[in-house]
Amino acid sequence: MKGSFEPLLRASPHCRTYEWEEYVRGGFMGMMEILNPPDKDPADDFKAPVIAAHVKGGSKEGDAKPINVVFVADMDMISNEFFFIRDKEWQELKLDNIAFILNAIDDLAGDDAFIELRGRRPLHRTLTTVESRVREFKDEEAKASEKAEKDAKKELDAVAAALQKKIDEIEERTDLDPRQKQIQKRIAEEDKIRENDVRKANIENEKNKTIKGLKDQTQREVNRITGSFRALAFFLPPIPPLLLGLFVYLRRMLDERQGMNPDRMVGAR
User: How far apart are CA 141 and CA 208, in angstroms?
Assistant: First the structure.
């Protein structure tokens, strides 16, 4: 029988692998000292090493059965603490250690009745309409920010071009000496810097105003949708039992009338 090696669990690609001697050092009277090993280059380490695997293989001569084991390279895979964490959901942790061990035992025993069931997770239904509207708001917000960035760049380019034009005009003047030209250029630069700051502030305010308007509109839409769902959740549930009760009442009234003597009915002649 040909052997097989099926990985079941892998570590994160960002993890690091250390030898025992790199992490633990023997101390006085057999006590162990935990070391702080240096970081490793991911290129020099194992990438997503296998933690658990299903190993099958042919039997050696004289062996009665072939190898069929689930090998787990983790001494802390299961313990009493994991049962406590699973039952109490301590620190909101949802660990699959126990389910993994139970599935491994069932698979080795040839019983797969509960393997798929243990892998299921509770699915919380959400208001897809609300989520869709929020996604639309995020897209519109990104577009508004992108437009504001483009407008800001356009305004800054215009200010820079105007400043360069002003400097060129000062340089071309023949009625100014170099010192006066330098003063005029400095004044022009300061004026353009102030103008630039004002334009940037206006663009930022306009962007924030647009985003706030989109956010308020989205919130109103979300409130309207959730309010309608809340109203439906309040009014719809009683309708089926009321209709059923009305149907039963009318049916009983009809049955009573069919079994009643016509002479005893009110209004009978």
Answer: 10
